């Protein structure tokens, strides 16, 4: 967490070299592939500003697995601009919870870091919609069928939340098939009369044409 808290705010958090006051320099911005795309999941619209090219792939890897939590600030800057540009309206912000032991081992939940900073920027309440009650394998190592069974019984929706007629923005770093968003979305929609919008920083898919 030290890097997250104390990394100099005057430098680009992606290359750590160029000076900038927005956490991302123009050189790094040019290496991102902005697609500003969306696709329909059954439980709500899923939006993402970036295509998952090698540049962002490397940064997300550092963010998730190498404790480079300072990258949250750059990612949130990108998400913030995207939310404004797309005029996304919402009441609460949420995230994908982690299995307790996994979160303990990593030291943080990357999805929650993003949601937390976005909630601050938009002055919205952060809510946890569902707890992860089972450890699962990495979704990206599994095929489509395995992804579904892998997530079965993995989450438990939180009861007694005041979500009636609210719109909740659920934030994560990466979306591939959308099965994680969907499995949480399904549980939440069964329990509550609310709308969900899924927001990921990047997607490995460009559009509908390469859906499975
Ligand atoms: Zn840079």
Which range best describes the helical content: under 10%, 10-25%, 25-40%, 40-55%, 55-70% or over 70%? 25-40%
Strand content: 15-25%
- Number of helices in the DSSP assignment: 8
Along the chain, the helix and strand elements come as HHEEHHEHHEEHEEHE
Structural class, by secondary structure, is alpha/beta
Number of domains: 1
Mean pLDDT over the residues = 91
Number of strands: 8
| Strands side by side in the biggest sheet | 1-2-8-7-3-4
Uncertain parts: 208-212
Q: Care to describe what's here?
A:
It is a single chain. The chain is an alpha/beta fold and 212 residues long. It has one domain: Rossmann fold. It has helices spanning 2-6, 26-31, 54-65, 71-86, 100-106, 110-122, 144-151, 179-191; strands at residues 33-41, 44-51, 92-95, 125-126, 130-132, 155-157, 167-175, 195-203. The protein has a 6-stranded mixed β-sheet with strand order 1-2-8-7-3-4. The protein binds zinc ion.
Task: Tell me briefly what this model is.
38% of the residues lie in helices and 22% in strands. The chain has 212 residues and is α/β, with parallel strands linked by helices.
């Amino acid at each position: 967490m030290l890097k997250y808290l104390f990394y100099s705010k005057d430098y680009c958090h992606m290359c750590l070299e160029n000076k900038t006051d927005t956490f991302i320099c123009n050189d790094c911005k040019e290496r991102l592939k902005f697609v500003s795309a969306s696709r329909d999941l059954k439980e709500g619209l899923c939006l993402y500003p970036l295509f998952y090219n090698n540049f962002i792939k490397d940064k997300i890897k550092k963010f998730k697995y190498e404790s480079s939590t300072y990258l949250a600030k750059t990612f949130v800057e990108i998400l913030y601009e995207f939310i404004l540009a797309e005029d996304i309206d919402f009441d609460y912000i949420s995230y994908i919870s982690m299995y307790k032991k996994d979160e303990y081992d990593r030291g943080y939940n990357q999805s929650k870091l993003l949601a937390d900073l976005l909630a601050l920027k938009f002055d919205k309440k952060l809510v946890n919609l569902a707890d992860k009650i089972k450890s699962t394998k990495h979704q990206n190592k599994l095929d489509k069928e395995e992804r579904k069974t892998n997530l079965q019984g993995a989450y438990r929706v939180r009861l007694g939340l005041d979500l009636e007629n609210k719109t909740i923005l659920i934030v994560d770093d990466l979306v591939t098939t959308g099965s994680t968003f969907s499995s949480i979305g399904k549980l939440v929609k069964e329990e509550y009369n609310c709308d969900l919008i899924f927001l990921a920083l990047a997607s490995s898919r460009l559009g509908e044409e390469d859906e499975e």
